[in-house]
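Hello forum,

I keep getting stuck at the same step: I have a sequence, I want structure tokens, and every attempt I make locally crashes halfway through. Rather than fight my setup again tonight, could one of you with a working pipeline run this one for me? It's a single chain of 171 residues.
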Amino acid sequence: MKKICFLVIMTIMALNANAQATPQAAPKAPQLEFALQLRVTLDQAYSVGETPKGRRTVIPITGGTFEGPKLKGTIISGGADYQMANGNRTEIEAIYSIKTDDGVYIHVRNCGLICPGTSADGRPSFYFRCAPKFEAPADSKYAWMNNALFLCAPDFGGQQGGITLNVWEVK
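Reply #2:
Ran it on my machine without issues. Output:
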């Protein structure tokens, strides 16, 4: 019995060593599918000041529009982008609602990061990415948004007094 256990252990160790020695291909990355573009209008930012967690800034959301292959509508005034700067990074949490052209309200909570950096050619740049979460009515045609992950990146070109957010669904 001891010989059988010893042989089993040796076989498992040999198989494990072979598995570790064989290089494996990198896993396939998830695909992204464009979901929508939000053109958000903003009011003047104000600072709460230094808090125990960092410097708090609030940027009121005053409205805007959004459009994508499966939905279109307006951004409801009254939300805000809450930013917490601490050292070389700023954490973002924007909370607001959107209304589709067919009258459905969807809650949005968009969290992300802004970090300074340097581009490949040595110029100053920054990392700015967010992961919005959508809460749509479960009985609506937008319920698919409740069961997916999303990524977004800002685009500052051409948006006077606001920001454009391009959003992709992770497939």
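The chain has a mean pLDDT of 89. If your local run keeps crashing, start a new thread with the error log.
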